[in-house]
Each structure stands twice: as structure tokens, then as C-alpha cells.
Amino acid sequence: MLKTINSTMTVAGKTSKVIYHDTNDFDEVDPGKTTQAYGVCFYGDNMLIGFGGKKKSWGLVGGTIKAGETFVDTLKREIAEESNMEVLKYMPIGYQEVIYNEKYKIQLRYVCLVKPIAPFIKDPDGSVKEIKLIDPKDYKKYFDWGKVGERIIKRAIDLKSKF
């Protein structure tokens, strides 16, 4: 059953409302409001995470959609840039609507199977400093995004078996 979760998220002292939706496709998503595509990436049985970003913390790999890019183009480009991994297969997990003051944006989440392109050196933008392959059940040792994060990771693990 597809779920919706209402939550909040605080980043740099700013609290946003987050409405997460499971989905099997992104047909209902407004491309003009969609700003990010991130992947819960698996290499074998391990989950890929990256360290860095504005928060200097561990998290999923992905990033900002550039003008003229499709959602999938962004996903593949960002994962390659940030981890030196190639996306072999992908599937939508869900999306979250993020509302802060009058600002509204949509962030996409995918499950991906990946493989290394070459040894990781660093993200060309310098945002990801390190990558790690972890047991998915241990992700909360690195980041904890509450009920929304739990749902995203659980759904990724469940959907991975469909590849």
C-alpha cells in the first residue's frame, strides 16, 4: 500500500513542513517545482552513502536538477559525479513536498543499482568528500530522518528485490 507521511524537518535552524508520498512513477509531480533527485543506491547488498554537503554529514547521493535535464538525467549525472558510480537500474520510491514560509519545492527519491566507474576521488563540485558502502540496516548510525527516512529506506529495500 502506498503511504503519505506528514512531518517536519529542521535544517540550519529553519523548520519546514514535509509531506512525503510513496509513488510508482513521477507523472503527478510538477517538473517546474521539482528541485532534487536523490538515490538510495545499492552496490550488491550494500547501500551507498556520501559525506559532505552544506551540513557536512552523511546522506544519500544525488542533487539539483539543471535546466533542460530530465529527472533521470539528473539522478544519473549526480550519482556519477558524487560517487563515481554508474546507475544500472532505477525505480521511483517516492517524493516529498517541502514547504518553508511561502516557498514550495518537490524532492524525488529513487532506488538504484549501481557499479563503480573508477575509484572514488571526490565530487567535482567538492560537495561529497567521502563515500561509504554500508549495511542498509545500519543507516541510522550515519543519518536519521525520522519516519520519512525510515519509509524511504524500507521502501528502497523492498523495491530492490524487484530488479
Automatic annotation (TrEMBL):
Q: Which InterPro entries match?
A: NUDIX_hydrolase-like_dom_sf, NUDIX_hydrolase_CS, NUDIX_hydrolase_dom
Q: Oxidoreductase: present as a keyword of the record?
A: no
Keywords for this entry?
Hydrolase
Q: Which domain of life is it from?
A: Bacteria
An example of a GO molecular function for this protein is: hydrolase activity
The residue ranges of the Nudix hydrolase domain are 1-161
Name of this chain's protein: Nudix hydrolase domain-containing protein
What Pfam families has UniProt attached to this entry? NUDIX
Secretion signal: which residues? none
Q: Which PROSITE patterns match?
A: NUDIX (PS51462), NUDIX_BOX (PS00893)
